[in-house]
Design goal:
Layout lengths: L19 E3 L2 E4 L3 E5 L6
Antiparallel strand pairs: 1-2, 2-3
Length: about 40
Amino acid sequence: MADESEPKGRPCPFCGASMMHRHCKYVCPQHGVVYDCADTFY
Protein backbone atom coordinates (compact mmCIF):
# COMPACT_ATOMS: atom_id res chain seq x y z
CA MET A 1 0.00 0.00 0.00
CA ALA A 2 1.35 3.46 -0.91
CA ASP A 3 2.09 5.98 1.81
CA GLU A 4 -0.65 8.65 1.67
CA SER A 5 1.79 11.41 2.71
CA GLU A 6 3.91 10.95 -0.45
CA PRO A 7 2.94 13.03 -3.49
CA LYS A 8 1.51 10.93 -6.33
CA GLY A 9 3.32 12.69 -9.18
CA ARG A 10 5.68 15.50 -10.01
CA PRO A 11 4.76 18.72 -8.20
CA CYS A 12 3.42 21.57 -10.31
CA PRO A 13 6.00 24.39 -10.44
CA PHE A 14 3.19 26.94 -10.02
CA CYS A 15 1.10 25.58 -7.15
CA GLY A 16 2.82 22.38 -5.91
CA ALA A 17 -0.14 20.08 -6.67
CA SER A 18 0.68 16.57 -7.86
CA MET A 19 0.57 16.43 -11.64
CA MET A 20 -0.72 13.48 -13.66
CA HIS A 21 1.41 11.98 -16.42
CA ARG A 22 -0.77 11.56 -19.49
CA HIS A 23 0.86 10.29 -22.67
CA CYS A 24 3.62 12.81 -23.31
CA LYS A 25 2.32 15.52 -20.98
CA TYR A 26 2.30 16.45 -17.30
CA VAL A 27 -1.11 17.84 -16.36
CA CYS A 28 -1.79 19.94 -13.24
CA PRO A 29 -5.36 19.80 -11.91
CA GLN A 30 -5.27 23.61 -11.44
CA HIS A 31 -3.20 24.80 -14.43
CA GLY A 32 -3.75 22.16 -17.13
CA VAL A 33 -0.78 21.01 -19.24
CA VAL A 34 2.43 22.29 -17.68
CA TYR A 35 5.04 20.24 -19.58
CA ASP A 36 4.98 18.19 -22.73
CA CYS A 37 7.57 16.00 -24.42
CA ALA A 38 8.92 18.95 -26.45
CA ASP A 39 9.93 20.76 -23.24
CA THR A 40 13.30 20.21 -21.61
CA PHE A 41 12.81 19.79 -17.89
CA TYR A 42 14.23 17.96 -14.90
